[in-house]
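Protein modeling request. Please complete all fields; requests missing the sequence field cannot be processed.
Requester role: graduate student
Desired output: 3D structure, C-alpha cell encoding
Chains: 1
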Amino acid sequence: MNAITAPQGFVAAGVHAGLKSSGKLDLSIVATADGNPVSAAGVFTSNKLAAAPVQVSRAHLADSGRTAAAIIVNSGNANAATGTEGATHAEEMCTITAAELGCQPSEVLVCSTGLIGIPLPFDLLAAGIPQVVAGRSPTGGEAAATGIMTTDSMRKEIVHTGSTFTIGAIAKGAGMLQPNMATMLAFVTTDAEVEPSELQSLLQHAVDHSFNRLTVDGAQSTNDTVLALASGLAGPADPLELQAALDAVCYDLAIQMADDAEGATKTVIIRVEGAADDTQGLHAARSVANNQLAKCSWYGQNAYWGRVASEVGASGVDFDPELFSVTYGGIVTAADGVAVGYDEAKMAEYFEGRRIEITVTLGLGDGAGEVITTDLSHAYVDENMGKS
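Delivered output (388 residues):
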C-alpha cells in the first residue's frame, strides 16, 4: 500500500543507509512531487528531553510560516540527548535534503527514531540522503513506511477517501507509548486545500482524540512527532468532513500501534461513561489503562472487574460506590456497585479475541472518556529488559 502518496502531489521513498546492521530500510522521505512547500502542521512530544529533530522541526515550522516541502526521517538512532552535535546533525539532514530538492532548509522537517543517547552516525546519513531523495516516487510509500519502523512488526498505513479529498498516513510505534504522544512518529498527507493555521488546528484535534489517548506502559518518549502536509490540489474541503476524516485516520493508526505493541496479546479500549465531566471520564479511563494489576488480568484473560473499579475509585474523580457498573464487551460483571453473575463460557470466548472493550459507567453525569491500551505480558519484559 502506498498510503502516504495516495493524495495528489506527494512522492516518497525508503532506503538502507546503514544505521540498521540488519540491512533493513532505515531512511525515508515524504515530499511534495514538485519540491515546493505546502501547508504543514506538527504536534510534538512535551518531554523536556525533546530530541534534536523535534527542536529543529518546531523551529522550521515557525521560520517557514508553517509550510514544508519534505520530511526526512531516519530509524535506528533517536538523535536524542546528543548535545550540540546532535542539533547540528539534525539541521544538516535538512540542509542536504533541501539542496537535493531545490527548496530551503527551513522547508524540510526532520525526524529520528531509535535508541536514546547514542551519537548519530552522520556520515551514513550524509551519503544516504541523496539516494533516498533520488528514489522518491508516487509508488515509494510502502518503502517509506517500512523505513521508519523500529521494533514494529508491521507497517502502519491507512488511506481515507473523502467526498472531494484523500488522506494518506503512515506511522511507527510499538512500545513506550503514553499520552501525550507516544514513542511514535506519524505522517499525514492530504490533497485538500487547507491554510496552515487551520491544518494545525485540525491536526491538534485529531491527535488529542487518538495518539494522546493511547498508552501501553506509561512512558513518554523524546522524539514523538506527528506531521501533516496538505498539497491543496483537490481544492477546498468541507471543514467538518475533513476534521472527521483526520480524526478517523489518526484513531485507526493509534489502534494499529496498540495491536502491534511490544509483547501485547490484547488491545484494550477503556471507556468511562456517566462521569461528572469529560475531563474526569478521560482521567479515570487513563488510570485504569495504566494499572499494572488490571493489565496483568487482561493478559490472563480474567474479567476481574474489581481491579478496574478499584482504580477508578482511587483516581480522584467523583465516584459513588453504589452506582457504578462494569461491562466487558457488553457482558455485565458488576452493577450498582456489586458483582453480577454472568456466563463464564461466553466471557472466555470473548477473551479469545484480540480486542477487549471495557466500559465503566459511573452514573454521575454526562461526561465520558476513552483510552486505548494493552495487556502486560512476559514478552513485554523480555523485549525491554535489555534496552538502553
